[in-house]
Design goal:
Layout: H1 57-71, H2 80-89, H3 98-109, E1 112-116, H4 122-130, E2 133-137, H5 154-161, H6 168-186, H7 190-202, E3 205-208, E4 211-214, H8 217-220, H9 225-231, E5 236-239, H10 242-247, E6 258-262, H11 265-271, H12 277-285
Parallel strand pairs: 1-2, 3-6, 5-6
Antiparallel strand pairs: 3-4
The chain binds phenylalanine (PHE) and fe (iii) ion.
Residues 7, 152, 156, 160-161, 202, 217-218 line the site of fe (iii) ion.
Length: 301
C-alpha cells in the first residue's frame, strides 16, 4: 500500500473474543488477521495508557530516524499548516509523551490524543473523533518495516495526523467526520464515508499559493508517496468532488492512482456540512469507480 497503513475501517473479523467485552477490533482493508497490539489493558472505549516508559532506546532511535527523514522533505511538499505545527511540536528527539502534547493541543483546538493498542472498531473510532479525542497507536514499527508498515503505528498516527489537529478548521472537520461516522453507521453508508476519509484525511492534496501540497496523513508520514503525490506525472489529480470521492474505490497496496485536491480546509468543511442522507442514497444508485478510473466531469487540478 501507500508506505503507510490504511485508515478507514472495513468490517471486523471476530478475533479478540472475550476481550473488550467481545467487541472485535477492526482491521483496515486487510483480511481476517488479528490486529497487532496488546489489547489486554484497553478500556471499553479502546483507549489505554500510553506506557511511554516501556519504549526502548532503540525504538526512540528508530522514531528519530523516521522523523528526520520526513521533516527533511516537507518544504515544497507539505501544506503550510502542517509545517507550522510540526515546528511548534518539539517532537523530534523521541517518541512523544502524549500528555505533554495534550497540554498544547487542548489549548490550541480543544483536541486531545488518546493512546490505543492498535486498530479499533469503526464505531469506537467515530465516537472518539466526535468527542475531539484522536486515537494514536502506542506501538512503533520494527526497523525492518521502516519503509512500509501494514497497520498504522505511532509514527503514522502521531506525525501524520496530530499536527493538523492544531489547525482550527481542520480540527472541526475531524470532529464533524466522527459525528458523521456515527450517523453513517446507522445508514449503512460507512464504506462511502470511509472513502471520503481516505481521499481527504489520509491522501488529500491542497492547492496553496506556492503550488500543490499534501495534507493527508498517509502522504505526510510516507517516505516515498509524499513526493510522488505532489510531483509525479503518473497519478491523476482531480478537483474536490464529494460524490465522486464516495464512488471511488481505493488501493491499500500501492501508491494511489488518483488524488483529490481541495482549495482550502474551509472548502472541505463547508462542502461536508450538509446532510449526507440523500447523498448516500444517490451514490448508492451510481456505479462505483475503480481507483484509477477517470470520470466524465472530473476537474483537473
Ligand atoms: N454532514 C455529514 C452528514 O450529515 C457529516 C460529515 C461531516 C461527514 C464532515 C464527514 C465530514 O452525514
Ligand atoms: Fe491514518
Amino acid at each position: 500500500m501507500s508506505q503507510q497503513a490504511a485508515e478507514p475501517p472495513s468490517p471486523a473479523a471476530s478475533f479478540h473474543d472475550g476481550v473488550n467485552r467481545g467487541v472485535a477490533p477492526v482491521t483496515y482493508g486487510e483480511g481476517n488477521r488479528p490486529p497487532r497490539g496488546d489489547y489486554a489493558d484497553a478500556r471499553s472505549d479502546y483507549t489505554c495508557e500510553q506506557h511511554w516508559e516501556r519504549h526502548t532506546e532503540a525504538e526512540h532511535a528508530l522514531y528519530r530516524q523516521l522523523y528526520e527523514r520526513q521533516v527533511a522533505q516537507l518544504d515544497g511538499l507539505a501544506c503550510e499548516a502542517f509545517i507550522a505545527a510540526v515546528r511548534g511540536l518539539d517532537a523530534a528527539q523521541q517518541i512523544p509523551r502524549f500528555d505533554a502534547v495534550n497540554e498544547r493541543l487542548l489549548a490550541a483546538t480543544g483536541w486531545r490524543i488518546e493512546a490505543v493498542p492498535g486498530l479499533i472498531p469503526e464505531e469506537a473510532f467515530f465516537r472518539l473523533l466526535s468527542e475531539r479525542r484522536f486515537p494514536v497507536t502506542r506501538w512503533l514499527r520494527r526497523l525492518d518495516e521502516i519503509d512500509y508498515v501494514v497497520e498504522p503505528d505511532v509514527f503514522h498516527d502521531f506525525f501524520g495526523h496530530v499536527p493538523l489537529l492544531f489547525n482550527p478548521v481542520f480540527a472541526d472537520y475531524m470532529q464533524a467526520y466522527g459525528a458523521g461516522g456515527l450517523k453513517a453507521s446507522r445508514l449503512q453508508a460507512c464504506e462511502q464515508l470511509a472513502r471520503l476519509y481516505w481521499y481527504t484525511v489520509e491522501f488529500g492534496l491542497i492547492r496553496e499559493a506556492g503550488g500543490l501540497r499534501a495534507y493527508g496523513a498517509g502522504l505526510l508520514s510516507s517516505a516515498g508517496e509524499l513526493r510522488h503525490s505532489v510531483n509525479a506525472q503518473g497519478p491523476q489529480r482531480v478537483g474536490f468532488d464529494l460524490e465522486r470521492m464516495m464512488r471511488t474505490r481505493y488501493r491499500i497496496d500501492s501508491y494511489q492512482p488518483t488524488y483529490f485536491v481541495i482549495d482550502s480546509f474551509a472548502q472541505l468543511f463547508d462542502a461536508t456540512a450538509q446532510d449526507f442522507t440523500p447523498i448516500y442514497q444517490r451514490v448508492a444508485q451510481q456505479p462505483e469507480l475503480a481507483a484509477d478510473e477517470a470520470a466524465p466531469g472530473d476537474r483537473p487540478a
